[in-house]
Amino acid sequence: MKAFVVDKYKKKGALRLAVLPEPQLQDNDVLIRIRATAVNLLDSKVRDGEFKLILPYRPPFILGHDVAGTVVKAGAGVRRFKVGDEVYARPRDHRVGTFAEFIAVDEADVALKPNNLSMSEAASIPLVGLTAWQALVEVGKVKPGQKVFIQAGSGGVGTFAIQLAKHLGATVATTTSAANVELVKSLGADVVIDYKTQDFEKVLSGYDLVLNSQDPKTLEKSLGVLKQGGRLISISGPPDPAFAGELGLNLFLKLVLHLLSRGVRKKAKRLGIAYSFLFMRAEGRQLGEIARLIEQGVIRPVVDKLFPFEKTGDALAYVETGRAKGKVVITVAD
């Protein structure tokens, strides 16, 4: 099969198109012929080695965290899927690699594709959908009437999270540029802040939850818009000790993550705010719940551009510009 691989960790490093053997199935795996995949900033960060401490991939490895396609083989232990099923998934860490023609994925990470979406649309959903679901439903437990601030509303996570928060009954605020105001309003944003001309810290107050996806300065400012008892969830860091515990990291790495997050955790505690770092995990059953919301018309995908498989490197470079609205998708096979 053809696949785009990273030969070594390198800032802005190039991807190399390689011919590799078809993935081998474990008993609980399905082999998916990839019809479409999508690009995330996470791909750039993994390629550049930013997560080497917690995701020590050994080059050469295949990038890619989103997949939509067709099951072509099933392992002996597979019970939920059969050959011919149209599925979508975010493969679990250490088994990613969707910038390819085939991938073997544990069936626990897979769900049937929403029947009202194309393969390209479905491929745009898994990583951002699971991130938003785990932040707002699982960790944040958002309830009707609460106020939720979602940063970068026109980005991949933002476009999904706005719709989900609105479905959960929240009043939703977001930041974006003037060019994307109508887009985020159409997704359900109630309060829209132009980050180029307005300071969200001066506009917002008394919020129940903030989903932070920006830099450390924005993270610290986010504490100021939350009410006492509110929650700050960050998907851009810094990782906290609870995350280190979940990963089972060694004592040295636990200490490193403890020190990285100590400042924001201390300030949050002083203000009576809960801080947590979220690094989403693969979860097929949650993707099934998300598929039902999509089929009901509650959530729609937002796809900015489609790139052909051979232009995967160009797609990654485009995402790195930060100008994409929603997701950037790569079509792999017809």
Automatic annotation (TrEMBL):
<dbReference type="InterPro" id="IPR020843">
    <property type="entry name" value="ER"/>
</dbReference>
<dbReference type="InterPro" id="IPR050700">
    <property type="entry name" value="YIM1/Zinc_Alcohol_DH_Fams"/>
</dbReference>
<protein>
    <submittedName>
        <fullName>NADPH:quinone oxidoreductase</fullName>
    </submittedName>
</protein>
<dbReference type="InterPro" id="IPR036291">
    <property type="entry name" value="NAD(P)-bd_dom_sf"/>
</dbReference>
<dbReference type="Pfam" id="PF13602">
    <property type="entry name" value="ADH_zinc_N_2"/>
</dbReference>
<dbReference type="InterPro" id="IPR011032">
    <property type="entry name" value="GroES-like_sf"/>
</dbReference>
<dbReference type="GO" id="GO:0016491">
    <property type="term" value="F:oxidoreductase activity"/>
</dbReference>
<dbReference type="InterPro" id="IPR013154">
    <property type="entry name" value="ADH-like_N"/>
</dbReference>
<feature type="domain" description="Enoyl reductase (ER)">
    <location>
        <begin position="13"/>
        <end position="330"/>
    </location>
</feature>
<dbReference type="Pfam" id="PF08240">
    <property type="entry name" value="ADH_N"/>
</dbReference>
